[in-house]
Specification:
This protein has 402 residues and is of the alpha/beta class. The chain has a domain of 143 residues: Glutaredoxin, CATH 3.40.30.10. The chain is built from 19 helices and seven strands. The radius of gyration is 21 Å and the shape is globular. 50% of the residues are buried. About 6% of the residues have low confidence.
C-alpha cells in the first residue's frame, strides 16, 4: 500500500500522457472499460445505466497502483464483472480530479471505491491492493450486501489504529490477529501496520517488545511462496521487515533478508510479460539495493525504464535519487530536471525538494533556494490534496532556514 504522501513510480491511459506510458491500455493489457479522469461523465453513465460506480484512485508514482494495473485490473478473470459496474480511474495528481479526490476523502493509494450513483454515497472504500480473486470477492460481497467480519475488515481496523496514533493497541491487535488470519493480502497488511506501529513506540513501551514476534510472523509470510498475495505486497512486507530488523540491532539478518528481497524482485522483473509489468518493481528494487548497500545496482534498470517510457517522469526521478546517494550530484540534478520537465501535478514539489538536496550536496545554496522557491510558486497554482499541504509547508520552512 502506498500513502498519499509523495514517494515515487510509472498510467490505464491519461490525457496528455506519452503513448508508451507504463499504464497505457496497450502496455498494461487492461480489459475493463475504464473511463479516465472524468468523474462527471462516469457518474452520469452510472446513473443512466443504473449501475454502481467503481473508482480506482491512483497515481503514477504509486508502485501498488501500478501493480494493480498490470497484475489485477488487467486480469481476464475480472471480465465477467465488466458490465456490472461503470469503471472510473482517477489520477489523483491531476488538477481536474481534485474536487472528486477531496469529496471521496482519498488518504491512501490506491483506494478502490464503489459509489452509489444516485446518492454519491460511498458503499465500499478499500485502501490498498488486492489480488484479482480478492477484488472479485469484495465486489460480489457488496452486491450481495454481505456483512460480518472479513480479513479485509481486520486489516482496515488495524490500519485505522495506526492512522489514529493508537500505536500500542495497533501492535497488540495486529500481533494477536495475524496468526488467526487466513492466507492472503489482509494478513500482510495487518503485519505491516503492526510492525510500523511497533517501530514508532519508545523502546520502553511494553508493546514494543512484541516487535520480534511480529517480525517472525512477517518472515513466515514473505518466505511462503504459496501465500496468495501480489509480489508487490510481498515486497512491501520485506521493506518493513528489513527496517524492523535494523531497529532491533539485527543488521546481519536485515542484510540477509534484503538479499532475498532483491532476488524476489529481480525474478519478478525477469518474468514480467511487458515493460510496464517489469517497471512495477523499479521503486522497490531501488529500496532493496539501498538496503544491501549497493544503490548503483539500480542504475541499469532505471536507465532501461527511461528508454522504454520516455514520457514518464518516474524513471529519471528515481535515477536522480540514486545518483544523489552515490554523490554524483551534477548527474542527479540533470536527471531530476528531466523528470521535472515531464512531471505534472503536486508530485513536482517532491522533485524540486530532491533537486534542492542535490544543489546543497554540491554546496550551491543559491541553486537550492531557486528549486525550493519554484516548488512554492507551483504549489500556489495547483490544488493540493492529501499530504501535499504538509509538504508545501515543510518546503517553506526549509527555504526560510536558507
Amino acid at each position: 500500500m502506498s500513502g498519499l504522501t509523495p514517494d515515487a513510480a510509472p498510467t490505464i491511459s491519461q490525457a496528455g500522457a506519452d503513448a508508451a506510458s507504463p499504464a497505457s491500455p496497450a502496455a498494461s493489457g487492461a480489459r475493463l472499460p475504464f473511463i479516465e479522469d472524468d468523474y462527471g461523465r462516469a457518474l452520469s453513465e452510472a446513473r443512466a445505466r443504473g449501475l454502481p460506480l467503481f473508482i480506482d484512485a491512483w497515481a503514477t508514482w504509486c508502485h501498488s497502483c501500478l501493480s494493480m494495473r498490470s497484475y489485477v485490473l488487467s486480469d481476464p478473470s475480472l471480465q465477467p464483472l465488466s458490465n456490472r459496474f461503470v469503471w472510473l480511474a482517477l489520477d489523483t495528481e491531476r488538477a481536474e480530479n481534485a474536487p472528486a479526490v477531496t469529496r471521496l476523502g482519498v488518504k491512501v493509494l490506491p483506494t478502490l471505491f464503489v459509489v452509489d450513483p444516485a446518492s454519491e454515497r460511498t458503499r465500499v472504500a478499500h485502501e490498498g491492493s488486492l489480488t484479482a480473486r480478492e477484488l472479485a470477492r469484495l465486489l460480489e460481497s457488496d452486491e450481495a450486501g454481505a456483512g460480518g467480519t472479513t480479513p479485509e475488515a481486520t486489516a482496515t481496523r488495524v490500519a485505522s489504529l495506526a492512522a489514529s496514533r493508537r500505536l500500542a493497541e495497533c501492535v497488540t491487535t495486529g500481533a494477536e490477529e495475524a496468526p488467526r488470519m487466513p492466507p492472503g493480502t489482509a494478513v500482510a497488511d495487518v503485519l505491516r501496520s503492526a510492525i510500523g506501529c511497533a517501530t514508532e513506540l519508545p523502546d520502553q513501551a511494553p508493546e514494543r517488545a512484541r516487535l520480534p514476534e511480529l517480525v517472525a510472523s512477517g518472515e513466515r509470510v514473505v518466505s511462503d511462496a504459496s501465500q496468495p498475495i501480489l509480489a508487490d505486497d510481498r515486497s512491501d512486507l520485506y521493506d518493513y521487515l528489513v527496517d524492523a530488523l535494523h531497529r532491533l540491532g539485527r543488521d546481519d539478518e536485515a542484510k540477509r533478508l534484503a538479499g532475498a528481497w532483491a532476488t524476489l524482485l529481480e525474478d519478478q522483473a525477469a518474468r514480467a510479460a511487458t515493460p510496464a509489468a517489469r517497471a512495477v518493481f523499479d521503486a522497490h528494487r531501488v529500496l532493496a539495493y539501498e538496503a544491501l548497500g549497493d544503490p548503483a545496482r539500480a542504475l541499469p534498470m532505471l536507465q532501461q525504464s527511461e528508454r522504454d517510457f520516455p514520457g514518464d517522469y518516474n524513471p529519471p526521478a528515481r535515477l536522480g535519487k540514486v545518483l544523489l546517494d552515490l554523490k554524483r550530484d551534477d548527474e542527479a540534478i540533470a536527471a531530476l530536471q528531466r523528470a521535472l520537465a515531464r512531471a505534472y501535478g503536486p508530485r513536482k514539489l517532491r522533485l524540486w525538494s530532491l533537486e534542492a538536496d542535490a544543489f546543497m550536496a554540491k554546496g550551491d545554496k543559491a541553486g537550492a533556494r531557486r528549486a525550493l522557491q519554484s516548488a512554492l510558486d507551483f504549489a500556489a497554482s495547483v490544488p493540493l490534496t492529501g499530504a501535499y499541504p504538509s509538504l508545501r509547508d515543510a518546503i517553506a520552512e526549509r527555504l526560510a532556514a536558507l
